[in-house]
Q: What sequence folds into this?
């Protein structure tokens, strides 16, 4: 694959020494190689980032040393995981701020922020770590959350959900851009159910579904007309389904390399930074999930 453009904004990766952070770094390396962007890796040596009992005994120096070691190990993972024709430019830094503060500050200048779905402090049954959740709610650039399982990278499609909201349209734009640079198709999911109907004055019952499906398909064609003109090379598959949005997205993303969602869709309240559908797919999706902020 050949990168279509170069960007001077880096891909920022949060590093804490966990397996998921290393998976996130590998994903970020592939993405950075495609877009010829730099990688910036950040580790926090803040007191809140570690066990206070260990810090009482050993102080902050061992924590800073562990951060430096984690960054060095992750850097080796990144360098070994890409076969880009040109070496990636990688910078690493240990910060004194708490992880959430440092990552949100970095998101102001990043092209993308990449995190593992849970850090080294989270148990195996935790689907989404507290740091990742907080960053997803307030991130100023697109955030991609990566699990420690192997992702389908080379030819799998990009999946995106849209509901006609501004957030949904931004997610569609990001999904088409990602698919174009990866030279893969896009599957656009538009989901209806009895209580979540877009641009309809009445709920859609099962008996009414066939006629509503046709109207939904026509609406989706119109909704995608502009982005298809921008990315004519991207093959598109429509998926209009009578289901709850999160369940429909998770179903179609089972064989995807990336799932793209807006931070908040049409159904979200104005004071909520992260919608229920977005939070549900972040917790359950097996592939990487990109969250596109609603105000950027």
A:
């Amino acid at each position: 694959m050949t990168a279509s453009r170069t960007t001077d904004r880096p891909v920022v990766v949060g590093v804490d020494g966990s397996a998921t952070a290393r998976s996130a770094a590998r994903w970020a390396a592939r993405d950075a190689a495609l877009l010829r962007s730099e990688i910036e890796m950040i580790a926090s040596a803040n007191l809140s980032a570690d066990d206070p009992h260990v810090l009482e005994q050993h102080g902050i120096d061992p924590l800073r040393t562990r951060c430096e070691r984690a960054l060095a190990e992750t850097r080796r993972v990144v360098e070994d995981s890409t076969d880009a024709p040109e070496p990636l430019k990688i910078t690493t830094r240990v910060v004194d701020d708490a992880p959430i503060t440092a990552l949100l500050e970095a998101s102001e200048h990043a092209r993308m922020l990449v995190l593992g779905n849970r850090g080294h402090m989270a148990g195996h049954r935790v689907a989404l770590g507290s740091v990742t959740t907080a960053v997803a709610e307030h991130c100023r650039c697109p955030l991609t959350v990566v699990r420690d399982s192997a992702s389908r990278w080379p030819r799998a499609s990009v999946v995106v959900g849209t509901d006609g909201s501004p957030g949904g349209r931004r997610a569609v734009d990001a999904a088409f851009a990602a698919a174009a640079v990866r030279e893969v198709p896009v599957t656009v999911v538009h989901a209806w159910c009895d209580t979540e109907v877009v641009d309809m004055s009445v709920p859609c019952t099962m008996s009414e579904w066939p006629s509503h499906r046709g109207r939904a398909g026509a609406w989706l064609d119109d909704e995608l007309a502009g982005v298809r003109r921008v990315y004519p090379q991207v093959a598109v598959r429509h998926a209009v389904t009578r289901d709850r949005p999160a369940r429909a997205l998770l179903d179609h993303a089972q064989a995807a390399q990336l799932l793209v969602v807006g931070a908040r869709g049409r159904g979200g309240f104005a004071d909520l930074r992260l919608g229920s559908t977005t939070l549900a797919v972040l917790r359950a999706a097996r592939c990487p999930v990109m969250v596109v902020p609603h105000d950027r």
